[in-house]
Amino acid sequence: MSNLSYMQKATDRGQLKIHVTTERGFFPIKDASIRLSYTGNPTEIIEELSTDISGQTAAVELPAPPLEYSMEPSEFQPYSEYTIQVNASGYRPINISGISVLPDKTSIQNVRMETATIENPLERNIVITANTLYGNFPPKIPEDEIKPMTESGEIVLSRVVIPEYVIVHDGPPSDSSANDYYVRYRDYIKNVASSEIYATWPDAALRANILAIMSFTLNRVYTEWYRNKGYDFTITSSTAFDHKFVYGRNIFSNISNIVDEMFNSYLSRPNVRQPILTQYCDGQRVSCPNWMTQWGSKYLADQGYSTIEILRYYYGSSMYINTADEISGVPASWPGSNLEVGSTGDKVRMLQEQLNRIARNYPALPTIAVDGIYGSATKAAVEKFQSIFGLPVTGIVDFRTWYRISEIYVAVSRIAELYQ
Predict the structure, then answer these.
(1) Fewer CB within 10 A of the end CB, N or C, for the chain?
(2) CB neighbour list of residue 420: distance below 8 Å, 6 or more residues apart
(3) For the segment 359-396, what is each residue's pLDDT rounded down to a tens digit?
(4) Neighbours of 292 (CB within 10 A)
(5) pTM of this prediction?
(6) How far is CA 33 from CA 18, 85, 126, in A?
(7) Domains and CATH numbers, the chain
(8) All residues at 6 or more sequence positions from 15 whose CB lies less than 8 Å from its CB, including other chains
(9) What are the φ and ψ backbone dihedral angles of 322, each rounded to 5 degrees?
(10) How far is CA 107 from the centre of its chain?
């Protein structure tokens, strides 16, 4: 499509926000310079941005195709694509192309920059491939939704545990040349959801699809499916076997918030211990009886179906939403009720300690007294944290804020463990 015809179709607006950090240690990079262009015309710079003390740009409004393109299967691409060139003193330049922007939604592009060395001074290039609803990808090879104990993939865990990270094999299982990526579990789910559905869909459809993605992934974790076949990874990026994961891709803020809100959930059937391997297809180019269809879930949500009603429509009335009691890689579990002004105790003290540690990397966060009392200063620090990391700014530590703080605290204090 020519740039002129593309612009004629880009009648709506979406937002793009960029967050630049170091590859290791999770330090924000201040004053990184970013040149933004259309992927179809990368030499024509349309915006020049720079990062603030938290390594972030302001959200920039950009043209996007009409909203209706993502509400029905269409021959027209429902998202616009942008390219960024990122430069920062002392770091390898990085180019990311194919960043998708949907109308009325905020797209978040995280950029992890490597230190420049004499041996490795060249720029990095990341290409984000098409959303699976628009591109051409192989359909899922059917499997049993419950893995028998006697087959390869024998269950080895006694209970469902939310992993801190998964190892993603970037290709089909047999491709020994494909890269393996260590990816935090929540980041993996956000990546897959942003790669396989449209963030413009109704909330109930997004939640139903995200729950299916999480349950499928946790089945792979719980059964150690690939390890029991002699592989050293958790899951693949091949749609024929698993889900579409795109290294370095952007995510969408509403998808990110939904995942943060329910990342400890999965789908169950009565008297079945393992998470259900919830398979699905698009329902347009590929049909899949007894599985959820992505477009079908969207249409049901349009009709007012709830998340669980959508799931039961496809997977049967015995399907229910379960939660895992154990979450790996966090200092402590959520207290079970919100922390807010007036709260006191050890959980508040832990929260204050974690915020102060994060503030060493993110100096926009105020340092607060570690006294176990949730006062106005702690509220202000929580509000600033929520603002930096894309959460609703309430000053209240709910489930998703607690675990987002835990996640960032772990990232800044011991991220090197992931590379051992």
Answers:
(1) C
(2) none
(3) 999 999 999 999 999 999 999 999 999 999 999 999 99
(4) 22
(5) 0.94
(6) 11, 8, 17
(7) 3-127 (2.60.40.10), 161-326 (no CATH), 332-419 (1.10.101.10)
(8) 59, 60, 61, 62, 101, 105, 106, 107
(9) -115, 165
(10) 11
